[in-house]
Design a protein that fits this description.
Blueprint: E1 3-7, E2 10-12, E3 18-25, E4 34-39, E5 46-51, E6 58-60, E7 68-73, E8 78-83, E9 92-99, E10 106-108, E11 112-116
Amino acid sequence: EVQLVESGGGMVRPGGSLRLSCAASGFTFNTYDMNWVRQAPGKGPEWVSTITAEDADTYYAGSVKGRFTISRDNAKNALYLQMNSLKPEDTALYYCARLVLGWASLDWGQGTQVTVSS
């Protein structure tokens, strides 16, 4: 069974940093592009970042580019998101996700909450 378990969230002040982790199991991790998606209360899901399987190329939403860094460790079946210079608008539940049939079908984790507030 595919499992994705996020961790590392918490409450930080504006300008602070957090490092999110995702532990993956139940599939061949190193053959899949991996993603971070977030959802704020009352909002729809928002794509944050992607890292490819082949060359670990990275892509970011404009709202986080320059502040967030996605990475992966295939030996550990782990995905990471380093979040710096956090803003209140970054407050959301953050999920790691594997695309099964493009964006029409995803495997999700349980999510980890990030709250940025003074």
